[in-house]
Amino acid sequence: MSFPPLPVGLLIRPLALADLPGLLDVQRSCYGGGYVESAEVFAQRIACPTQCSLVLEVQGRVMAYLAAYDSMMGKVTQLHGEFEPAPHPDTLYLHDLAVLPELGGQGMAARLLHTLWQGAQRRGLQRAALVSVQGSQGFWQHHGYVAYTLQDTAQRERLAAYGRDAVYMMRRLDSAPL
Known about the structure:
Order of helices and strands: EHHEEEHEHEHE
CATH topology: Aminopeptidase
Helix content: 25-40%
Largest sheet: 7 strands, mixed
Shape: globular
Oligomer: single chain
CATH superfamily: Gcn5-related N-acetyltransferase (GNAT)
Strand order of the largest sheet: 1-2-3-4-5-7-6
Distance between the termini: 20 Å
Structural class: alpha+beta
CATH class: Alpha Beta
């Protein structure tokens, strides 16, 4: 999928510590209290050597973000927990995607996703995974993700901490089937 050039004043770039106040504003605008994660947790995640998180800013204001890192297939990040570097990552793990409601429906989430997927492919990763929450499974299916049953008991327990409707999902970054 190709996109037209970004509108003037809109920029997609790596997440930095200075973005945390804006990221937290976006988070509070998009999620209920149970999913809002602290600045301390995000600061720890930014320090992870395999993180590849992005922000979308408009005229210097954080309007959306995609928190992600290189991980392993079937591994779930703990809610409110640090990113855990994998010695030999094979999967891009999307931990959190949020877009301010005022930009909803304008394709900003897709732009962030495609930017991250392209970078993951350049790093040799073949698939992406995430935990779908708050009824977002249809959104992720629209972007090529399918439900995937976790085999490891510890990872199923981590998934359960995200709530009753949490679903682990995966997609190929190329055109091959899962």
